[in-house]
Amino acid sequence: MIQRRWPEWWDWDLEFSPHLLKRMSDRRFTEIDLRGMLARATGLKRNYEPGRWVVETRHRRRLWYVIVEPDSEAGLLVVVTAYPLD
Fold first, then answer.
1. Which string of b and e fits 17-34 if b means at least 16 CB within 10 Å?
2. pTM for the complete prediction?
């Protein structure tokens, strides 16, 4: 089910996982690109992994998924990974 309203953690500061940092290089996108993808997000749904969410967005005219995990203790939104749908 796609989320229609953005949750309170949507505006929290971002933290990037080590996995994401490696994928940024592999998939050729930058932190600026990622922040733009999140700003242009069109949908949000629960991930199969408990506590994680799938952000639907676009980048370079392609559909992308950005996986995030809110960390309520730290007040951070951890970006786990991002990838294009082919």
1. eeebeebbeeeebeeebb
2. 0.92
For residue 1, what pLDDT is reported? 52
Domain boundaries, the chain: 11-84
Q: Would you state the CATH architecture of domain 11-84?
A: 2-Layer Sandwich (3.30)
Bigger pLDDT: 86 vs 57: 57
Secondary structure (DSSP) of 25-76? HHTT--HHHHHHHHHT--EEEE-SSTT-EEEEEEETTEEEEEEEEEETTTTE
